[in-house]
Design a protein that fits this description.
This protein has one domain: Deoxyribonuclease I, Chain A (4-Layer Sandwich), CATH 3.60.10.10. It is about 20% helix and about 30% strand. The strands form 4 sheets. The protein has a 6-stranded mixed sheet with strand order 4-5-6-7-11-8. A 3-stranded antiparallel sheet has the order 1-3-2, with no helix packed on it. Strand 9 and strand 10 form a beta hairpin. The relative contact order is 0.12.
Length: about 230
């Protein structure tokens, strides 16, 4: 919500693609010198939306069939002269009452795939952000959505980069990405970066930022995925 003051710390990581949930509208401010190549933002609240930044000459093109009913599940084409990716940036949140047809939290992602199925390809696909979900929470009835997502993506040969690289099971993560109420003793793993198999095979490292380095900026730490 105060990204203009905190952005340099994450820009210093030298990413190619940066997904920032809960980010203020990038049109509210100007970063000088402008060190990113392109950017895109969506949201209902100028102080808190979903932003994507690209660097190193990567550009962004919105997907033509973007469905605003799932505003914070954002499909974008990211490309430069040599590479192109189909990116879905994610920030799930509560948007209505919980009913059998509800679209809260991870259900937003699952429902959006009715529109984005053809966009989610078996090669060069990236789906990442804050899912506010984990298989650890045993849910009942209509809320068995995390496993549905994992099964859907696996059928397309798309997998969690963290779990593949760390050789950990879903719901059994040893590192948290979010610290509830900023407390170090309340970690949860709710941020994910899913990659198609060809990108999984190119992984060089998957790292999470440390609590001490980032807690003064956010209750989340960055997930840094590096590919060869």
């Amino acid at each position: 919500m105060n990204f203009r003051k905190d952005c340099q710390k994450v820009f210093d990581l030298n990413p190619d693609i940066l997904v920032v949930p809960e980010c203020e509208d990038i049109n509210k401010y100007t970063i000088n010198p402008k060190i990113y190549s392109d950017s895109y933002w969506v949201g209902d609240n100028q102080n808190k939306g979903l932003a994507v930044f690209t660097f190193n000459n990567f550009k962004i093109k919105p997907y033509n069939n973007y469905n605003e009913n799932y505003k914070h599940v954002l499909p974008l084409e990211v490309f430069n002269d040599s590479d192109s990716f189909n990116l879905i940036a994610v920030w799930t949140k509560k948007v209505g009452e919980k009913t059998k047809q509800h679209s809260n939290y991870i259900r937003q992602v699952n429902l959006s795939f009715n529109d984005y199925g053809s966009f989610i390809k078996s090669n060069n696909s990236i789906i990442c952000g804050d899912f506010n979900s984990n298989l650890f929470w045993v849910r009942t009835g209509i809320d068995k959505d995390h496993q549905w997502l994992l099964d859907y993506l696996e059928a397309k040969n798309i997998y969690s980069s963290y779990h593949k690289f760390k050789n950990e099971k879903q719901g059994k993560e040893t590192q948290g990405t979010y610290f509830h109420y900023h407390k170090e003793n309340r970690p949860f793993h709710i941020d994910f970066c899913f990659l198609s198999k060809n990108l999984i095979n190119r992984m060089k490292s998957v790292k999470l930022g440390s609590y001490s380095d980032w807690i003064n900026i956010s209750d989340h730490v960055p997930m840094i995925v590096e590919l060869n």
